[in-house]
Amino acid sequence: MIDTLRSSWLRWEVIVPPLALLVLALTYGAEQNGVLTTIDAVALIAAVVVAVHHAEVVAHRVGEPFGTLILAIAVTVIEVGLILMLMTGGGGDTSALARDTVFAAFMIVCNGVVGLCLLVGGLRHRVVEFKVEGVTATLATLSAVATLSLVLPAFTTSTPGPTFSGPQLAFAGVASLVLYGVFVVMQTVRHRDYFLPPGHGEEEDHAEPPSAQRAWISLALLLVSLVCVVGLAKTVSPAIEGAVDAIGAPASVVGVVIALLVLSPETVAAVRAAKRNRVQTSFNLALGSALASIGLTIPAIAVASIWLDGPLTLGLGGKEMVMLALTVVVTTLTVAPGRATLMQGTVHLTIFGAFLFLAVTP
């Protein structure tokens, strides 16, 4: 019994949060050098990974579709924390960091994650199936929120540049919250069955859900991990921006790095679901995260902009608008039949590759 308890407290997911908190306490506010920056960066990556792990444990205890909702919100909290810390702690012009990160998250999940899931699922199961009602509802909401938040600011005339005026920003924030709130009610209450995998409840190989005690422990460790992510992001933010400048990449690459870091553990969870022929769960994770990323991040940044210096750039450029429109059209064609193969996965991954290439060489 003692050995069992000891081993349960020596698991990596239990050890990492307090270690990351210790690193944060010892290095926060200290003058950074190569060694300290490396230690902080490793602790930051570990904190992100373990935070998503504990969110998955809590999500598994709650069950679908609430589970993917919890995971999406946890990832969004991490994303907002990273953005705010980089905007307040980094040098240079960070007015477009929120836009770049949210757009990168949109492209990563709608092309990278979706494409990888369809490719893996198609190779393993030839044809994968999902419920059209849930996926199309998510995509419609996502398209509306993305257009209102990332496209419309480039065409308004109340303020110079691709920005919103104060009232316009407030409207966009409220509209995003309303759309996301209605979507959550539909996903978890009124039309919950739309988001459950086809054949749910029929001979599925689920792992046993964690105990209530383990779920509560994971919730506590999740909160500790989120604190570590925010604090360590502020500590390493100058180094991240310095590295991007050193390689001569555009400032928007910082947003891509943040999105890739935050979404990497969730990508693993989505691909695992696709390997088990549960692409509906993969879509819940991918498209739900993109919707949460825009629907929650933009309002949070809008509120934070009251205390931030300078304008908040939200409108995309022409190249990014083309990529966004192409993604929405291709994703619509992908999900409309309710079944897909590796062909659709290859198309999405090709668009994702184009996004990454053009982000570095605009």
Can you characterise this structure?
Its main location: membrane. There is one protein chain. With 362 residues, the protein is mostly helical. It has one domain: NCX, central ion-binding region (A middle domain of Talin 1, Up-down Bundle). Helices cover 75% and strands 1% of the residues. It contains 12 helices and 2 strands; from the N terminus they run H-H-H-H-H-E-H-H-H-H-H-H-E-H. Strands 1-2 form a two-stranded antiparallel ribbon. The protein is globular. The termini are far apart. The relative contact order is 0.21. The model is unreliable at 1-9 (pLDDT under 50).
Instruction: Report how far apart the termini are.
Output: 59 Å
CATH architecture: Up-down Bundle
Radius of gyration: 20 Å
* Amount of beta strand: under 5%
Membrane topology: Multi-pass membrane protein
GO molecular function, one term: potassium:proton antiporter activity
InterPro entries: Alkaline_pH_Ca-Antiporter (IPR052946), NaCa_Exmemb (IPR004837)
Keywords: Membrane, Transmembrane, Transmembrane helix
